[in-house]
Amino acid sequence: LTARVAESLTFNRRARVGVMLRESLDPDARFAAMTIERPLAGSGGRFRSLYREAAAASAGSKSGPASDTLTGWTRIEREGDQISFWSSLDGKSWGEPIHQLTMLNLNDPLLVGIAAAGSDIGIPEVTAFEPLRVRISDLEVLPLSPPFVRGDSNADGATDISDAVAILNHL
């Protein structure tokens, strides 16, 4: 899972953006994230891995290299139970992972996406991500059921005269 923070105009102190994978939307779920953050003091940014190895446990982190800007590439790779955290300033030179850990028995499917957080009052404003690039094997797409809409008896996503006709046809 790779993403580039292409432009960040304003950023609260200690704000972080990057990529994340997690077991569920439960706030205490296990997760792994690779971010770029703005430090409490000074300018520029720092890459940081964040993770929770056990459900409801405290989250851990490990600092990566510094960046002169608040832009860069973040990557998480999962191979079985092994999670690797990567950073790059140019998207070409990745070097060694800044952190690796083992998370046994991760649930499938995992949720993946962009993560953004800030610890100041206000909202971190990240103005541009380049398209998210994901390389996944054995992908299973889970069907999304259409949302329930009261009165939409023919389930076409609209409430109109055709719903009344569908009810009459049913009778």
In terms of topology, how is this protein built?
Blueprint: E1 2-7, E2 16-22, E3 31-37, E4 45-52, E5 60-67, E6 72-79, E7 82-88, E8 99-102, E9 111-117, E10 128-129, H1 161-170
Antiparallel strand pairs: 1-6, 1-10, 2-3, 2-9, 3-4, 4-5, 6-7, 7-8
Explain what the structure shows.
The structure is a single chain. This protein is mostly beta strands. The protein is 6% helix and 37% strand. A hairpin with a 7-residue loop joins strand 3 (31-37) and strand 4 (45-52). Mean pLDDT is 80; it is low at 132-139.
Short recap of the structure:
The chain has 171 residues and is mainly beta.
The H/E string reads: EEEEEEEEEEH
Strand content: 35-45%
Rg over alpha carbons? 21 Å
Level of helix content? under 10%
Order of strands, widest sheet: 8-7-6-1-10
What's the N-to-C terminus distance? Answer: 51 Å
Number of helices: 1
Content-based structural category:
mainly beta
What's the overall geometry? elongated
From the structure above, extract its key features.
171 residues; mainly beta; 5-stranded antiparallel β-sheet; 1 helix; 10 strands
